[in-house]
Amino acid sequence: MPSPADDLITIRDLVRYAVSRFNAAGLSFGHGTSSALDDAVFLVLETLKLPIDELDPWLDARLTCAERETIVGLIERRVDERIPTPYLVGRAYIQGIPFHVDERVIVPRSFIGELLVSSLVGGEGFALIDDPEAVTSVVDICTGSGCLAILASRLFPNAEVDAVDLSPDALEVAAINVETLGADTVHLHQGDLFGPLAGRRYDLIVTNPPYVEAEVMAELPEEYRHEPEMALAGGHDGLDVVRRILAAAPDHIAPGGGLICEIGTGREILEAEYPDLPFLWLDTEESEAEVFWLTAEALGVA
Ligand SMILES: C[S@@+](CC[C@H](N)C(=O)[O-])C[C@H]1O[C@@H](n2cnc3c(N)ncnc32)[C@H](O)[C@@H]1O
């Protein structure tokens, strides 16, 4: 029985084939890639264990039969089952750090990653955190794969980092990442938001909670249905968990500390509901005002 792999010899051939198949199938993107081409390149390079940001040197490299069959098989699953590519290859990157992912966790793509490595942390001029070395305690609420906690453990070398998730499944994946990436200062806790952290205060609270509103949940493209529902669904207007975090944060933020929280598109709702909170809205390359920063002082903790 002839297979497409018989005619697809080089990386260029396979990337081209994947883009054609993805476009013809009308796939949805947004799990770390934003187009058929990006997705195809990631699928091919990651499967071959090549650096994912360098396509040119390999374009004309010929592949073995086994490599071609494997990649064609993954392309077919991407199309037929609408599985996001990071689940197919078991890998997602945040700021260059390779995380193990599978369907027990949402695919990491938080805008907070970009903000934490930007000049807003320890940079010249305006910064949210002037001195990363002075940060000694961080908590990542809703940690999923542990990606933001592990990133924080690298950026704040003197900090102990607690990381909480309600999902035991997600914490199993986080534990794999903590172990594989040698993130010894990250401590995982199972529970509801700050539940396992009674009495503890932190210099930095990081959180990317579920925030998809009910109407959007009902119409999510097939790809997103492979992700755990509890990682996405944020109730009627998407802000149920965000409100609970805002209510609990004053009991867990240290004087001089800050809260960075991703909320999606709910800015207007929050501003109307909390007129006295001076939210500082942060933009990234691909988002506008989907993440806010609040200082401890703004939360009433002097
Ligand atoms: C949007 S995902 C974020 C995961 C990870 N921080 C990231 O950026 O990729 C939200 C996470 O919150 C967890 N979660 C949902 N409700 C929670 C709750 N009440 N307490 C703790 N974690 C919760 C989900 O299991 C999921 O892993």
Automatic annotation (TrEMBL):
Tree of life domain: Bacteria
Listed EC numbers: 2.1.1.298
Keyword set, alphabetical order: Methyltransferase, Ribonucleoprotein, Ribosomal protein, S-adenosyl-L-methionine, Transferase
Pfam families: MTS
Leading EC class: transferase
Catalytic activity: L-glutaminyl-[ribosomal protein uL3] + S-adenosyl-L-methionine = N(5)-methyl-L-glutaminyl-[ribosomal protein uL3] + S-adenosyl-L-homocysteine + H(+)
InterPro entries given in the database record: DNA_methylase_N6_adenine_CS (IPR002052), HemK-like (IPR004556), Ribosome_uL3_MTase (IPR017127), SAM-dependent_MTases_sf (IPR029063), Small_mtfrase_dom (IPR007848)
An example molecular function term from Gene Ontology annotations: protein-glutamine N-methyltransferase activity
GO cellular component terms listed in the entry, alphabetical order: cytosol; ribosome
Gene3D superfamilies in the cross-refs: Vaccinia Virus protein VP39 (3.40.50.150)
Positions of the Methyltransferase small domain: 136-215
Listed SUPFAM superfamilies: S-adenosyl-L-methionine-dependent methyltransferases
The keyword Ribosomal protein appears for this protein: yes
GO biological process assignments: methylation
Function: Methylates ribosomal protein uL3 on a specific glutamine residue.
Family to which the UniProt record says this protein belongs: Belongs to the protein N5-glutamine methyltransferase family. PrmB subfamily.
Protein name stated in the entry: Ribosomal protein uL3 glutamine methyltransferase
